[in-house]
């Protein structure tokens, strides 16, 4: 376990390098699909730091995409003369800062709730952020915000953002891996398994939960900032999206809840299915997504990783016959 | 002064309807510990059924209530037995996602059948109103409120005095003990769901009379039900009524005095505040189910 998990970052970096070759061989449509896959995978992993590891599944993480994106936009527009790279860095810093502050404030009341109560209360947080953003003129939510183009002139923006998403998502995955194998990560897992017992045994559950919440929110916000730049123009409706809220849960569920690579597998699969296979059937979209959810819950509650593990266990028990 | 009273009256009327729309959600949550995200869809199915029935036969929409409730009772029983029961004892996400998936599918079907446009049911007395001491009462809203209160009282009596109600309460308190006393828990779960679905359908009719509705509204009604339940407390019609009235009054007061686009903000701020001060809901024990 230890040796193989110590090799994981090499595996992650190798996989990222392989994926980086994507835009050189793929047609433009698939570069766009790849963008969405990488963005979704990053979001899924960021969500899973709280939802998968600690078992606090949030139904409102799009709030942090929105907060990050709008803060970045408002701050960046104050400095129209900066170089593109600096502008992006400034936006990332501002977005991350706003997400950190808001999530730290929200964490106190919200983390007193558990299970489904927490999930729906987060949906409430998301709706409140969206409405305030939309109705207070200062935030320009209903008018929308423009982002200066940051891709170098010599480069196709689609390819540029593909690489940017890839880099960001790889970093998120590495952070998740570092948390996963740390004492902090073990504490989060113990909260998921039995919070009251964990607290009794001396795990600082309240502090761990808050930290996981803030880390998850900040990483989500960072991806949101990149997303806003890729869109170029955002309104409230384009970042605070309920289908994002849902997808984040589905990624983990589809890949394997509480695993490191589950959300990545889930995001790749779901984006492929909805964009490539169902891309032409817009009238059918809600129905197909709903059907997928129902089948998933009924047939494969452990996700893809759960299926593979069950299959391996069965094979092993066949190879060693009981005497 | 008149404006304040008028706003309060409007809020109470709206609140009665919120309470009716939430009571089924509360019952399912209290007994099955399932967050039914397809609750809003059940409400809308009631509204559309009433629309179809009252147009086909030409009767008052409130008179279609027995048919709508019967249809949803049967559908709710089947839905629980065939789908939800399989996810009840899995992770808390399981049943939530299952019901969400069903909600998406049904919403898509509704869009195919009824189009995504706003619809409303207009009874013959749609524009009648009367005044008492300077406060206006719409006939429609008053009859909607009366229907809500009657139905909520019926449910309360059913739970309190009938054998079915006793079995449902026993299952909610101690599932294992109820099982040991010979209660068929799966059957009770399904019956609870059926009753909830029937009341959701009835709420749909009442909503259809006073407000326009479209397939996209389902998440709104699910969310409202959740807020009402958290405010009032889980599993009792009285809690739902209290939570509903509170929500209705807060909504109209905010829309009147803060701004028409802010009811959701105040609603959730109130929710968070209440969770800090009184995490069990105003009546009953909202959070035992979440531990």
From TrEMBL, chain A:
GO terms assigned for molecular function: branched-chain amino acid transmembrane transporter activity
Keyword Disulfide bond: no
Cellular localisation: Cell membrane
InterPro entries linked: ABC_transp_permease, LivM-like
Membrane topology: Multi-pass membrane protein
Residue stretches spanning the membrane: 6-26, 87-111, 160-180, 212-234, 246-278, 284-308
A cellular component term, taken from the record's GO annotations: plasma membrane
Domain of life of the native organism: Bacteria
Keywords: Cell membrane, Membrane, Transmembrane, Transmembrane helix
Name used for this protein in its record: Branched-chain amino acid transport system permease protein
UniProtKB/TrEMBL annotation, chain B:
Example of a GO cellular component annotation carried by this entry: plasma membrane
Keyword Heme carried by entry: no
Domain of life assignment: Bacteria
A GO molecular-function descriptor: transmembrane transporter activity
Record's keyword annotation contains Ribonucleoprotein: no
Membrane-traversing stretches: 12-32, 39-57, 63-84, 96-115, 139-159, 188-213, 225-250, 257-277
Subcellular location(s) per record: Cell membrane
Pfam families with a match to the protein in the record: BPD_transp_2 (PF02653)
GO biological process: amino acid transport
Membrane-topology descriptor: Multi-pass membrane protein
Keywords: Amino-acid transport, Cell membrane, Membrane, Transmembrane, Transmembrane helix, Transport
The family this protein is said to belong to: Belongs to the binding-protein-dependent transport system permease family. LivHM subfamily.
UniProt-recorded name of the protein: Branched-chain amino acid transport system permease protein
